[in-house]
Write the structure tokens for this entry.
Amino acid sequence: MELQLRLALSSNSDEGFDLNNRNQEQQVEDCRLMKKKRCFDETFGEIENVQVPQTLPLLDHIDLCVPGYGRNECDEEDGVVGWPPINSWRKRVCHQAHHDNRRGCITTNYVTVKNGGGGGGSGGGRSKSMHIKVKMEGVGIARKVDLSRHHSYQTLTDTLSAMFGDEKVQAYKLTYQDKEGDWLLAGDMPWGTFINSVQRLKLLRNGY
Amino acid sequence: MAQSFPEDVLEHVFSFLNYDKDRNAVSLVCKSWYEIERLCRRRIFIGNCYAVSPEIVIRRFPDVRAVELKGKPHFADFNLVPEGWGGYVYPWIVSLARAYPWLEEIKLKRMVVTDESLELISKSFKNFKVLVLLSCEGFTTDGLASIAANCRNLRELDLGESEVEDLSGHWLSHFPDNCTSLVSLNISCLGSEVSFCALERLVARCPNLKTLRLNRAVPLEKLPNLLCRAPQLVELGTGAYSAEIQSDIFSNLAEAFLGCKQLKGLSGFWDVVPAYLPAMYSVCSRITSLNLSYATAQNPELVHFVSQCSNLQRLWVLDYIEDAGLEALAASCKDLHELRVFPSDPFDAEANVSLTEQGLVAVSEGCPKLQSVLYFCRQMSNAALVAIARSRPNMIRFRLCIIEPRAPDYLTLEPLDTGFGAIVENCKELRRLSMSGLLTDRVFEYIGTHAKKLEMLSIAFAGDSDLGLHHVLSGCESLRKLEIRDCPFGDKALLANATKLETMRSLWMSSCSVSFGACKLLGQKMPRLNVEVINERGPPDSGPESCPVEKLYVYRTIAGPRVDMPGFVWTMDEQVSSSLSRVTERRGD
């Protein structure tokens, strides 16, 4: 399955487009691809050193793009611009809430991701599970993985393969953000050290 | 017949007409009614600031007291309109200042407002009373200081959800000591602290203060100080609703709320500490409007608080309320008119809360007056939508956002055409609709057939072909605003329905398949439309004519093409071909 930068998680290649319009569709696709690619080039220029601007994943209102481009093209964590349709005020509340959650802030109590089972789920304090956000470059919407259920990079990679597709995960490299906000290549550290410092995960295309 | 009443009698009759629609209708009866009406119209509403020029407005209406203007397209709220696009209010203020020295009210939405504009407002209108800035930007607290200092009779200052550059909290101290006229103050969007002493004194000396919305920086411990000085408040927006758990803070708060016998609306609640929610229990039964959409409280405290408000008419809340909370709401708040449920974790495909379509179904079934819905969720079914449509034929505004684009009915994996079709078929008074999920051209056929009162439609990631757009443009008789993103709509439907666009306020299409050639054609054929192409990557003619434009904004206007466009916006009119080739020559292409 070759890489397609699409605006949805699932592949909807057979939506019944008029064949006569196929060329136009391709052009639209090309134009969108170009736009996204340029965005990544501008913001991921230093990817070789796996140094990504610290503010990239979390904060809005930081202009990551070259002047002349739309102000906030890249601020929704590389996802689809303007989707879901919530304004910047609400986005700030969401980001703030997750920031607080990760710092273990006690003024708020958060629901952790339900793993399909029933039950209350809400309540004060943090549970033992360790849900970390995983983003794959080029995919609009992030997923979450419970690191407490893993004890090695191998099992983690297996889970990610199940989530995103095996071929994709093989072709990408796994990076993570540590407590200091730096982005590092996963696998260099012993698993225990990794688990203690990982804040979020990101799958980046090879070749940068 | 028109001469049988003297002018002042007609003028007196017209003074009872407050709706623009009615005033516009009487203006069309005959020339003398037009003349009488225009001389006595005091309020004007301009839904698109580029649809008309200040000069034209002033020429027709010589004695206006209240002006309302809207600037950027609605999708600007979601960062789809690039910065620098336009919507500058300054030229309007300059003209209004010259023409209407007795202007009392200015209300702006999605406009760029500078400190210069604010200063000019504060100095030009001696009887200025009301300034409302919703989702505006471009000004600082210095501009607010001018307003505070110079508007002697200021009644209302509402900063909405504007982006204000916070230079200092001292602007509030510029309200003179003899300013006692404030009725409404909303500073909730300000980031930094205002001088609390100044605020306290201001609140204390304004006996008619009915609405007070504080910003996050006002600490909870200080809230009682304000409430005690303004027990007549009808609407309160708290600051941060958090403090360390201390019994004296709690009792002060509870006592202060006890004194607020008129309180009907609550908002704010940033950083909420649930333990402090019960301090408000004494006012809950009178509350009709509750905005908890910034409150990260969860069940059971959240639903317990909401259920106390048995007279609730409007609830804005985060999805922490969950299905269970909405079921409780449906049981306890039978007067509910409006429900908005916002996502706490919008950028995650996986749910962090147990909120599904069931919550909305429950509220639709349990609340007979429910007419306005905005709902973010992660799964929906046709069955649920049909149930909602059948329960609530009185629905007027229905906005559903399923977080994943193109998500099908999660039970049957079919498109949600049937569900939304049921909504438009049953809810005959529907004026506003936003759709999401997997949708084919069929849903647009339903909309074109049934949604005869629909005025505003928002579409994203939907449809198969131009037929979809054609159904909407040809069928929706009342359509005023259409905004579309990421749909496979192209040239055919647009060009076939060009005249329809003159009956609407505006059309927005981004990431669709409308070609540059079609935009040019539309602009050339329809002189009373401004056809604006937004292309940030470069001039639209740098590729073939068949290449789709990035964004298209079409609106009717009697003011001609606008003159304040930034470099990435092009107007399509007769001059467009020659002016574009001049540009490319200059750039040495």
Summary: Residues 34 and 532 of chain B are 33 Å apart (CA to CA). Chain B touches chain A through 67 residues (CB under 8 Å).
